[in-house]
Design brief:
Layout (H helix, E strand, L loop, with lengths): L8 E5 L2 H11 L3 E8 L4 E8 L3 E7 L18 E5 L2 H10 L8 E2 L6 E6 L5 E6 L1
Parallel strand pairs: 1-4, 5-8
Antiparallel strand pairs: 2-3, 3-4, 6-7, 7-8
Pfam families: Glyoxalase
Keywords: Metal-binding
GO molecular function: metal ion binding
């Protein structure tokens, strides 16, 4: 099997409107499609990230909290590339999104930092 690329990333949120606002209005992702599935009492929001990647944002009633600390086995975080880390951090902070201090990747020498979505899912921005 030859994998071409990552097709999409699925995220389950606890508060659909809050997470939709975060990903659309604060991070600037574009809505491709929004569907309410009555049988599952669930929304599915397809988001486009700069015309390349797609995130599927799901809501389900009564979802358990995701353990984030201490780190556990499995998916660690999502990372988004930015051109200028300082500008990106400033923009996030102006939108009341708290970021960790900027660090340098000891392997690549590139700058990066972390922040969280409304459900405390760790998100990273990594300088190009």
């Amino acid at each position: 099997m030859k994998v071409n690329k990552i097709h999409h990333i699925a995220i389950i949120c606890s508060n659909y409107e809050k997470s939709k606002d975060f990903y659309v209005n604060k991070l600037g992702f574009n809505i491709v499609n929004e569907t309410y599935r009555q049988a599952r009492d669930s929304y599915k929001l397809d988001l486009e990230v700069n015309g390349v990647y797609q995130i599927e944002l799901f809501s389900f009633p009564y979802t358990p909290e995701r353990p984030s600390r201490p780190e556990s086995c499995g998916l660690r975080h999502l990372s988004f590339e930015v051109n200028n880390i300082e500008d990106a951090v400033k923009e996030l902070n102006e939108k009341d999104i708290v970021t960790e201090p900027i660090r340098i990747d000891e392997i690549t020498g590139k700058k990066f930092t972390f922040f969280q979505d409304p459900d405390r899912l760790p998100l990273e921005i990594y300088e190009k």
